[in-house]
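Good morning C.,

I know you're traveling, so I'll keep this short. The sequence:
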Amino acid sequence: MKKVILGVLLTAMLMGCSKETKVVEEKRDVSQIFEIPVTFGYGTKGEYILIGEKGKLGFLVGSEKEGEAEAQPIIAEKSSKYMWYFWGDKKELK
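The tokens, ready to paste straight into the viewer:
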């Protein structure tokens, strides 16, 4: 009886070790980051940094004086205010 139990345990261990683990590579499309020039209310020239598709849609992720702007990450489950920018004709935007 002991040999049967030992045999079953060894077989179960070997079956557990023989399973192959497959690594699945996930491909993601990464949106482009682009800048648009802006003049702030007090006359200083600056730039907005947006992520999205230039000429169609962009989310503001940074703004500062010209040459000083840096993109800030969008973090899941962290609330924040994001400005949305849309470009296109009225028919397309409806």
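Safe travels,
E.
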